[in-house]
Write a structure and sequence with these properties.
Blueprint: E1 4-5, E2 18-23, E3 27-32, E4 36-42, E5 49-55
Length: about 55
C-alpha cells in the first residue's frame, strides 16, 4: 500500500460514499466504498497536520 502526501481537493471526494471512519488522538482515516482512503494525521516530527490519500487495488 503506497501513501502519497497531497493537496486535498474537495471535488476529488464528491459523489464518493463513506464506508467507515476511524478516529484516534492523532489521526482520522476515512474509507470510501471504492477502496480509497483519506488520512488526516499529526506528523510526529513536525507537529503539524498532514494529509494523504491511497487506494487499495
Amino acid at each position: 500500500m503506497e501513501t502519497n502526501e497531497c493537496v486535498v481537493v474537495p471535488d476529488q471526494f464528491k459523489g464518493k460514499t463513506v464506508e467507515e471512519v476511524a478516529i484516534t488522538t492523532k489521526s482520522v482515516v476515512i474509507k470510501f466504498t471504492d477502496g480509497t482512503y483519506f488520512d488526516i494525521f499529526l506528523h510526529p516530527s513536525e507537529q503539524e497536520m498532514k494529509t494523504s490519500t491511497n487506494k487499495l487495488d
